[in-house]
Amino acid sequence: MLLRTITTALAFWAVTAEIPQAVLGSGTSAAVQTAPHCRYIPEDAGWPQPHLWNQLKRTVDGRLIATVPVGSVCHYPNYDEAKCNELTKAWGLAQTGVPRPAEFLALYFQNNTCTPFTPTSTRCVLGNYASYSIDARSIDDVRAGIDFAQKHNVRLVVKNSGHDFYGQSTGKGALSLWMHHYNKTTMIHNYASSYYNGPALHVQTGAEGAAAGAHASAEGYTVVAGSCPTVKMAGGYLGGGGHSYLSGIYGFAADNVLEWEMVTADGERVVATPTQNQDLYWALSGGGAGTYGVVLSATVRVFPNEVTSNAAFSFSVGQAGGIEEYWNAVSTFHQQLKPLLDQGMVAEYGFTNETLVVTGVMAPGHTSDSLQSSLQPLVDALTAKSCSQLTIQSLGMKLAQADSYYGLYKAEIESHLAGLVFPAAMAGRFVPRKIMDIDATELDKALRAVADRGYAYAVIALNALNSVRNRTAPPIAANAVQPNFNDAYSSLMISPRWTNSLPWSEAQVLQDQLINEILPMYDAAAPDAGGYKNEGNWAEKDIKKSFYAGTYERLEEIKKKMDPSGFFYGITSVGFDRFDWDSAGRLCKA
Ligand SMILES: Cc1cc2nc3c(=O)[nH]c(=O)nc-3n(C[C@H](O)[C@H](O)[C@H](O)COP(=O)(O)OP(=O)(O)OC[C@H]3O[C@@H](n4cnc5c(N)ncnc54)[C@H](O)[C@@H]3O)c2cc1C
Ligand SMILES: *[C@@H]1O[C@H](CO)[C@@H](O)[C@H](O)[C@H]1NC(C)=O
Ligand SMILES: *[C@@H]1O[C@H](CO)[C@@H](O)[C@H](O)[C@H]1NC(C)=O
Ligand SMILES: *[C@@H]1O[C@H](CO)[C@@H](O)[C@H](O)[C@H]1NC(C)=O
Ligand SMILES: *[C@@H]1O[C@H](CO)[C@@H](O)[C@H](O)[C@H]1NC(C)=O
Question: Is 286 in the pocket of ligand 1 (CB under 6 A)?
Fold first, then answer.
């Protein structure tokens, strides 16, 4: 009964943006007492009073925003039919979440609390949404947020783009630092240091990958960025390692970091480079974002633009001439990619038990003619009578060339990523190169069995430590990029079929199925392969091993030095096991 009153009040708050403390103030007997080892949430007695929030609002020049979930337009009293219809079509898309404070893309953590898919009469509640966001424009805003959260025992989260698959850019009852508008990029023509001399790009954390690419390219340079245009350069992407179509020649994004600028849990500004605060440099470069401090900016090595080519093609069961022929072709495709990856090309593709669609075999330094010749053995093998009934025509090969990677990305790749909606449950796994080189028979069987359960793969295939890359762009310095990614042939995202109109209870069914049935099928064929820390599942059975692969202990030491009280938290981030959520969703020290 008590709880019901509180949730009603909260629901009212969510849709009207009234400051709730007037209703829930600690003077009322409704306030819940909690142990101080938990962060306060709005129904707690210790939750900051309205005047304190108003003070914070003045400190950040009015840029404190009380959360109104975007889904509130689909619920009374905010219901608006036209806006709700628009939102229904755009639910889960980056364009919906990225430009709004407190929105995040991870549907599992959104948890159906305020969506277009529940009746309009259902109350819109905040659930796992942060309660307030600071639209951060300066280091002072960041410090104000840290200081307030520290003083008042409120959870602090950082939302940059909100792409995080584990809901780490949100938190129930949290104060969020929304970094979207802290997004300048600056060209440095001659970065000079003992570890690198040459061109570089300085990126504030809120700059998007595509914006960084566009800026560098206009100045004649190429920056290692991800495929999704709206993933931010210097937040979770760079912090988690960051894979790219360019990783075959320039390595992971984190391999190219020259300098980090960060604010600690004490509000202190620190700079980390290969020669200054080296431990922090090592940890921030691939060891996972959001746990050591708030990153303000990074400076990354860039490379001169060069001619780049891309090939796209696809095939299906029907075109291959049958199910066995199709899987022959998939296996042949995988084997034939290896020599291309060894020359520094990177492939991104998706496949199910019915089709395989290659968005790109990206070949920096190649004209489309030279790419076509490089692809000839692959095409010959796929179209061989002993393999399948595929023909050069049925592959629908499309070659494209531009004077820069960014130009080609813009023309051939970007549009494929804008429309992606990820299911409520998804997991990740590496394919170790060793398995591909020694014997892929069991792996092929497992991939097929999982696909026959209705699952799809989204894949990036690469060889991060090939001889071309070793010659042209070794890492700037040692870093915490997970070693199992360096040794991988590919990284898979494994997703069940999903549409937003499925009953919400399916989300938990699919989540459990992934962890308890699907991943074990894969792991039996490729034991201990691990997966990319930015593209996996939060309930991964051994996070330390799978996502950190031998780097966890040193990262934990660094975490303890930088943030001894565990102020920064993420469910898969270093230090995660020192906290738990209680039944009301409070973050509590374990
Ligand atoms: C559609 C899509 C495409 C993707 N494509 C790629 C790809 O091509 N290559 C690739 O490697 N990955 C890719 N990813 C994964 C992506 O790298 C991660 O989701 C990444 O964490 C996003 O970082 P962000 O800062 O943009 O997002 P957010 O969700 O805002 O942040 C991610 C995490 O980093 C923390 N964080 C963000 N900014 C800061 C900061 N300034 N200081 C401290 N902590 C911070 C957040 O608190 C959170 O824990 C993709 C994801 C999606 C959804
Ligand atoms: C989602 O909501 C349900 C029901 O309120 C709750 O039991 C569950 O813990 C929530 N899940 C997450 C990830 O918050
Ligand atoms: C930065 O954000 C502004 C809006 O605040 C936008 O107009 C601009 O394009 C963004 N720039 C970059 C580099 O992302
Ligand atoms: C692919 O898997 C789905 C889901 O299990 C199944 O219904 C379908 O028949 C399979 N297709 C082929 C070609 O085997
Ligand atoms: C590239 O360098 C790495 C690390 O130094 C090494 O492990 C790898 O074998 C090298 N690869 C080639 C093809 O030279």
Answer: no
